[in-house]
Amino acid sequence: MKLLLHTCCGPCTIYPLQVLTEMDIQVMGFFYRHNIHPYTECLKREDTLARYATDQGLKMVWQPDYHLESFLRSVVFREKDRCRYCYHARLSAAAKIAKKGKFDAFSSTLLYSRFQNHALIQEIGTAVAKETGVDFFYHDFREGWKQGIEESKALGMYRQSYCGCIYSEKDRYCKPPKNKT
Fold first, then answer.
1. 20, 55, 82, 174: which has the fewest C-beta neighbours closer than 10 Å?
2. CB atoms within 10 A of CB 57
3. CA dist 91 → 7, 70, 134, 156 (Å)
4. What domains, with CATH codes, occur in the chain?
5. What is the per-residue pLDDT across 35-72, written as a single tens digit (0 to 9) for each?
6. Which helix H or strand E contains 135, and what residues bound it?
C-alpha cells in the first residue's frame, strides 16, 4: 500500500512511521502549515520534522505559503468547534494530494495523540475519503504514545507543548488568575 501521512510534527511522526513501516506500507509525509501559530512555531516544527524525515529517509510534501488569515477567518466566532475545521482542512488537503499522487490511502499523525478526538478525526477522514475517492486509513497509534515521547527526547527533538493554533496556545498557557482573598 502507498500511503500519504499528514504529519503535524517530528515527535508525532516517530511511532506512526515505525508502525506503518512494520506493516510494509510505503509512506510519504505531508506537512500542513496554516494551522500552526505563531509563524516561528511553524518554522520550529517544520525544521524538526525535516531533520527527522531526512534521517529516516521519509520523502515529504511540504505545503507552501502560510495562510494564517484564512485559517483565522474560518474559525473566528466558532472557536469551540475549531478542531472540526482544522481536522477537515488538514485531512482534505492530504486526500487531495494523495489523489493527485495516486496514493492508495491517506492518514494522519493526529491519530497518535491522546489529546485529539479520534472519533471526529475518523468521521471526517471517512467523509473526505468519500469526497475524493481515496481511502482513509485509520489506525489508533496512541498505544505508542510514551514510546514516541521517549524517542523524541532521546533524539533531542524540539517538542511543542500545544496542538498548533493560537487558541490551543492560549488554552495551554493562559490560566485564569486565582481569586485573592
1. 174
2. 6
3. 10, 16, 11, 29
4. 2-173 (3.40.50.620)
5. 999 999 999 999 999 999 999 999 999 999 999 999 99
6. strand 135-136
